[in-house]
Amino acid sequence: MRLYVTATFKGTDNRAEIERLCKLVRQAGWEDFCFARDVEGWKHVFDDPGTLMQRSLREIMVADALLLDMTTQPTGRAIEAGMAYATGRRVIVIMQRGTPIKDTVRGVADAVIEYDALEDIVAPLARLRMEWA
User: Fold this and answer.
1) What is the third-level CATH fold of 2-132?
2) Is pLDDT of 45 > 80?
């Protein structure tokens, strides 16, 4: 099953962090997909925001679910979660324990996973994959 991992790429500042998250997704048995890595190749590719979002929607449509980390305030990532929800894809929200999230986020989430250490997401993600397969 393919999991669309939402991520805002900030250059070398967070590439390793994104790769770490994708590795944990693979450890849970999912096929990971990350737009910044797999489409953009870690660089700015789209000058037109409309084209960027159309391509993102196409990739969401071939995914089984979308993963959204709410620990930091999302912008474009929240839009991708809305697109996933609107197209019937499952949405998995992860967040560091104690992070406040709005009811609207819970409303689109099929699962909410809280973690102390990011590695804590592996077992719940593996269970979800088994349940949804």
Assistant:
1) Rossmann fold (3.40.50)
2) yes
